[in-house]
Design goal:
Cofactor: Mg(2+)
Protein name: Ditrans,polycis-undecaprenyl-diphosphate synthase ((2E,6E)-farnesyl-diphosphate specific)
GO cellular component, one term: cytosol
CATH superfamily: Decaprenyl diphosphate synthase-like
Organism: Acinetobacter equi
Number of helices: 9
Structural class: alpha/beta
Order of helices and strands: EHHHEHEHEHHEEHH
Helix content: 40-55%
Number of strands: 6
Strand order of the largest sheet: 3-4-2-1-5-6
Shape: globular
Radius of gyration: 19 Å
CATH architecture: 3-Layer(aba) Sandwich
Number of domains: 1
Subunit structure: Homodimer.
Distance between the termini: 33 Å
CATH class: Alpha Beta
Length: about 250
């Protein structure tokens, strides 16, 4: 049984840092890599749960810019698991009308994986029930620097003037600019940091940290996170009195 009721306030955009796969393997005395294999299987029920709750967007951190520094065998395994995930997700996305997309520095990925990602995006681009984004070779600082680079190019081409640049304009150049800002950021695995994930997009996100390792994360805990989110007052710089007055007026 889930903890959240249908009439409770839910986030539009949820992001998850899926951490704890290696610690799960060590905890259960499993061979190296098996934690990542177990973690791969957790995503499906979470995606389905979000879809049933009419969450507009779910973005998951699969492989960070910094993860390239991990041992070669682990990087190779993660790349293979990402390929397997994409192949498995395409028919699921078609079944559930979910758009699948990817963010990150694709130049560091194999041409085969890049081609597979593009194919998945093209096949699911018209689907509207939810957007599932997988961050691969992604870093929030890379995202912002890349956005600045694209913005400079547009200024040089006179598509936009320097005087037009503000927060709203810059926001159009970062990844996921067409989606709502992240409302809820969940991190599994017990660490209390966001690890260079969606730095711009999570500016006002509610943060939910859990000691649960990603391969042990469940729909019930996802529901608990939603309940915690719904209980929080989101002020966006305003006072509680202003928020309550706005609710009365609406």
């Amino acid at each position: 049984m889930t903890l959240i009721e249908d009439n409770q306030h839910l986030p539009k955009h949820v992001a998850i840092i899926m951490d704890g796969n290696n610690r799960f393997a060590k905890k259960n005395q499993m061979p190296k890599g098996d934690g990542h294999r177990e973690g791969k299987n957790i995503l499906d029920p979470i995606v389905e749960f979000c879809r049933t709750k009419e969450i507009q967007a779910l973005t998951v951190f699969a492989f960070s810019s910094e993860n390239w520094n991990r041992p070669e065998y682990e990087v190779n395994l993660l790349m293979q698991l990402l390929e397997d995930t994409i192949l498995e997700q395409i028919p699921r996305m078609e079944k559930y009308n979910i758009a699948l997309r990817f963010i990150g520095d694709r130049s560091r990925l194999s041409t085969h994986l890049q081609s597979l990602m593009l194919q998945a995006e093209e096949r699911t681009a018209s689907f509207t029930s939810m957007t599932l984004t997988i961050a691969i070779s992604y870093g929030g600082m890379w995202d912002i620097a890349n956005a600045a680079k694209q913005l400079v190019k547009d200024v040089e081409c006179k598509k936009i003037s320097v005087d037009e640049i503000d927060e709203q304009q810059f926001a159009q150049y970062v990844c996921l600019s067409d989606l709502p800002p992240v409302d809820l950021l969940i991190r599994t695995g017990g660490d209390y940091r966001i690890s260079n994930f969606l730095l711009w997009q999570t500016a006002y996100a509610e943060l939910y940290f859990t000691d649960t390792l990603w391969p042990e994360f469940s729909v019930d805990e996802m529901s608990k996170a939603f309940s915690v989110f719904s209980s929080r007052e989101r002020r966006f710089g305003k006072t509680s009195e202003q928020i309550q007055q706005a609710k009365l007026e609406n």
